[in-house]
Amino acid sequence: MARVIDSVVGHQDEINKLFQLKQKGRWPHAIMLVGPSGIGKKKIALGMAQALVCESSSEGCGQCGSCLRIEKLQSESLIVIEPDAELARPVIKVEKIRTLLDSLALANLASARVVIIDQAQLMNPQASNALLKTLEEPTDNVFFILLAPDVHQFLPTIRSRSQVMRFHALSYEQLKQIKPQQPDWAYRACRGRVDLLTSLASREGAEKRDESLTFLEQFLTDEEFLLDKGWRDIVKDRAWAIFCVNCWMQLIRDAIVLKTQAQKFILNTDQSERLKQFFSLSDAKLNWLGEQLVRVEKDINSNADTALAFEDLWVRYARVD
Q: Which of 168, 186, 210 is the last residue of a domain?
């Protein structure tokens, strides 16, 4: 057994800053770890939870009972809140936050308690307001770690009461260290995210990718796109919709790069035939679509209706010269 933090690849500067906060007695009541999914934020949060409750080391020893229970997610000093994944639109409801606050009101013999809220941006407004009340009146030795892609997905009042630590996507080399022997195009196309790399490199993921790129071709060429009900049923799966947007962004990016004759920077090296189809589109239209896909991804991550997001994108795309 060891410290969870030691299994993290990358982010060493950010991890050092977190330990400095702890060692200087400046660890905040609430901290946001923000950055793309699949880069190790949750492992870092668990590693810092070990450091906060460890019986023998300010950085977590990985050997004491407290550290071992944190690692196994069996500690009374650790509460992990996650969205209700079984819902069509995953969300953290107010009932979960109220149950959490009730449990925090109970006496605890541990030196500290840590609450990790994964995908905290998916708290509904009632849950966010319930959490805000406890952030406004912090309890001694209770520490909140909120994980999310973007700090701007939170209420301004929650942001103002939390310290923010930003994390970046993993490098090509770091991805190969974590998951060796994957297709080269998958390392390049996964945007520095292990979860996306795993999905892309799997047989099912390769099929999903092909489906999403076929959907992109329909989006770009079908003048009656809005009348087709088939794609609306497909994008109801929020995870698939996000995956789809990621694939589109990568291919649009490659099309822009290819027009500059910089082939060595292409990510989707196995999609040369599809990329040729983009030569008829103007640079302005490609750039516009790339920028708008970033917005669509944020909207879907914030629980926007997926079908409406694609419909609105198509309507606005059709108006671009």
A: 168
- In 190-282, alpha helices (H): 194-201, 203-221, 230-235, 238-259, 272-276
pLDDT (0 to 100) of residue 261: 74
Whether the Cβ atoms of residue 19 and residue 31 lie closer than 8 Å to each other: no
Helix axes 194-201, 238-259, angle to 10 degrees: 90
CATH number at residue 292: 1.20.272
pLDDT at 2: 80
In the three-class reduction of DSSP (H, G, I as helix; E, B as strand; rest coil), residue 271 is classed as coil
**What total of structural domains would you count in the chain?**
2
Q: What's the half-sphere exposure (Cβ side, CA atoms, 13 Å) at 203?
A: 0
- pLDDT, mean of residues 279-283: 83
Question: Which amino acid does the sequence have at 300?
Answer: I
Nearest to 71 by CA among 10, 3, 141, 22: 3
Structural domain includes residue 74: yes
Q: What pLDDT, in 10s, does the model give residues 93-128?
A: 999 999 998 888 776 666 789 999 999 999 999 999
Q: Could you say which DSSP state residue 278 is in?
A: G
Task: Indicate yes or no: pTM above 0.90.
Answer: no
